[in-house]
Amino acid sequence: MIGVTLLASRVVVKKCLTLATLSFSLAAAVATSALADKPIFQDIAIGGGMDAATIFVEQQDGMWTRITDHPRTIPFNITIAMSRGYIQFYRIGRALDQNAVVGFASTYSGLTTGYAGTANFISTSINSLTSVSGPVNIPIDGYTRLDHRDERAIVNGCNSRWTETESGHSFRYSLPLAMHADAREHRRKRFPYYLNEYEGYGDFARAIATGFVGLKVECLGTDTKPSRPDSKPPSSSDGEPRSAGEDPADRSGPIEVKMDLDIAGGNACPRNAKITTRIVYDHPKTAKFDIVRNGKILKTVEIEARREALSDGSTQWVVDRIDNVDAKAGQNQFRIVVKGGGRSGMKVANVECAPFQILFSNLAYNVANGGTCPKQVWETATFSATGPGEATMQLVQENGSVFYEKKLTAILKNGEYRLVNQRVLSIDRDTDEKFRAQIKGQSGVHSKWAQLKVSCPKRTSPKPENKKEGPKKLDTKPKTSHSTGTKAPRANPRPQKKAEPARTNPVSKKPQIVCKGGKIFNGSCQCGSSKTRRKIGERQYQCIAVAKPPAKNKAVRSNPMPRDKAARANPASKKQSLICKGGEVRGGRCHCGKKKVAKKLSNRQFACVARRG
User: Fold this and answer.
1) SS3 (DSSP) at 471
2) N-term to C-term CA, the chain
3) How far apart are CA 540 and CA 345, in angstroms?
4) Among 362, 389, 355, CA closest to 445
5) In a 3-state reduction of DSSP, which class is residue 467?
6) pLDDT digits 0-9 by tens, 104-155
7) What DSSP assignment string belongs to 539-572?
8) Are 595 and 611 in contact (CB under 8 A)?
9) Which residues contact 90 (CB under 8 A, 6 or more apart)?
10) Peptide bond into 176 cis (omega under 30)
11) 157 with 171: CB under 8 angstroms?
């Protein structure tokens, strides 16, 4: 067969033709059912990994001229999944022309008849299934060549480094791919029914996808021969092809790759997307995978798989992980791509973000417990918004007057944008009023009426009552009771004491002590050791200096000794002894007997002389 055309094989078995009469009327009834909405594609993708296959280019007369006819295979993967409806067939080519596939990688051969030079494509019937996922191979051999555009680009890439014709060189080339798939809303069995074949009917829908597969191009040197082909078809897990030189233990991909997607509620944009990944290997492995959104890598994760024993006695190695990424406004296509092979199915989330708008308003008052005033009151106004933005809040009384307003900015909290204003009020009187919160310029968005009720009970302490009512009831003269002869109780004893008449002859206060030349200490006048106190009036004293005794010269010590050991230089400083000549000293006096008397000779010197007559 010239070209590459992959068709789903049909086995036509002709037996028991009598079964053809089964349920024909039922099929006709289904065919006339009312039309429904068009089918919806949940996922459609085409592509492959880098260096999925190696293409060799030969040279002649010092230039690279042609791609070799050495047999090899170019592998890639396709995925088609429906959320509603059934796939009829898919078609794969090199490019899209008005949503139709034209050309294909293996488009012509060297033959001059048949399909030579025509744009062929792969077309496969799907038998009305809801999903397709698996490998497709493009064989390159003597009869099948790449499209002339790709072939020319590859040869030119080799010749761009013309100085390396002797040793050769290599580079990478991205081979473009295109695909479209057709689907129908319903399906029914074909006749004869025992063949278990289906055909679609009802509303029609078509989806397209583009991608590429990476090729490694070897520009052979002068004497270099092509090596054995290193390309292999994709694994059954829809993974990337294995590259040459990899260790067998490392290149074996996972046996299972799954992903669950959970988009946070609310009206925030972007929204939180929780990605739950499960990767299963049949051998110990450190998994490395990318979280991809709309073809762009959001996050790369490297984690060691844990060992898990199965009920049948076998063992597997599993990665269970949760990651949080952003889901932006519009369509978000999430997928897990495992390094070295394997990827999950695509999960699609459509996030709608409305323009900034206030959706909800609430006002609440919380009054502190306690019986005294002032009381603290917590006021909280909350608004829900569709996204980031600013708005002016107003607090309105029942009469419609605005008594407070403030500009607020929306903040993102728990997946929702909110505008919040909190105040702490201090209220010192009985209050029972209603208020509501609204947005300035949006009269239709406001809270319910919130009641602010504060009770301030009267004080039981007599102090405030005395100050307020005492002076009004109080008489300046004390009242007495004539019946009992006892004094009536005072309403307020403090004001009555102030109202007592002043004394006409007040008792004079005790005069203070006057101490001239001295100090008053403990209620008396103290004059010190060098002065004597003399009373000069009632409770008045004067300190008079006493004549100082002659100064006693102290010997000057040439080598002074410590004070506690030094001897006095002039012991005469002691008090002079009493001298009594002719008598005796007793009791500090000179006694001379009965017939003599003491005669003073000088200071503290006496002599006993005979009495006269």
Assistant:
1) helix
2) 191
3) 116
4) 362
5) helix
6) 654 443 333 333 344 456 677 777 888 888 888 777 765 567 777 888 889 9
7) TEEEEEEPPPPPPPPPPPPSSPPPTTTPPPS-GG
8) yes
9) 78, 80, 123, 124, 126, 132, 179, 180, 181, 182
10) no
11) yes
Mean pLDDT of the chain: 75
Which runs of E-coded beta strand occur in 94-248?
Answer: 95-97, 100-102, 122-129, 131-140, 169-189, 198-219
Alpha carbon distances (Å) from 501 to 485, 487, 490, 504? 22, 18, 17, 9
- The total number of residues shown for the chain amounts to 613
How far are the Cα atoms of 311, 332, 369, 511 from residue 539, in angstroms, in the given order?
116, 107, 65, 7
- What's 357's DSSP letter? -
Q: For the chain, give percent helix, strand, coil, nearest 5.
A: 10, 50, 45
pLDDT band at 8 (very low <50, low <70, confident <90, very high): very low
Judged by phi (left if over 0) then psi (alpha if -120 to 50, else beta), residue 127 lies in left
Radius of gyration, CA atoms only, the chain: 59
514-516 and 540-545 strand pairing = parallel
Q: Using CA atoms, how far apart are residues 583 and 119, in angstroms rounded to an integer?
A: 170
- Given a contact cutoff of 8 angstroms between Cβ atoms, the answer to whether 19 and 194 are in contact is yes
Contact call for residues 202 and 180 (beta carbons, < 8 A): no
Question: Is residue 58 a contact partner of residue 220, using CB atoms and an 8 Å limit?
Answer: yes
Closest-CA residue to 337 (of 271, 293, 305, 307): 293
**For residues 156 and 41, what is the distance between their CA atoms, to the nearest angstrom?**
39
Alpha-carbon dihedral sign for residues 58, 2, 208, 297: negative
* Confidence (pLDDT) at 25: 31
Query: Backbone phi, then psi, for 150, in 5-degree steps?
Result: -70, -40
| Contacts of residue 167, Cβ cutoff 8 Å, sequence gap at least 6 | 221
Distance CA 539, CA 542 (A): 10
d(CA 105, CA 153): 13
Q: Give residues with Cβ within 8 angstroms of 441, minimum separation 6.
A: 392
For 385-403, how does the pLDDT look when each residue is reduced to its tens digit (9 = 90+)?
A: 877 788 899 899 888 888 8
Annotate 302-335 with b (16+ C-beta within 10 A) or e (fewer).
eeebeeeeeeeeeebbbbeeeeebebeeeebebb
- Token pair of 484 as six digits: 């009992």
CB atoms within 10 A of CB 218: 18
Q: Is the pLDDT of residue 30 over 80?
A: no
Distance CA 556, CA 541 (A): 41
Mean pLDDT, residues 530-545: 87
Q: Which amino acid makes up residue 164?
A: E
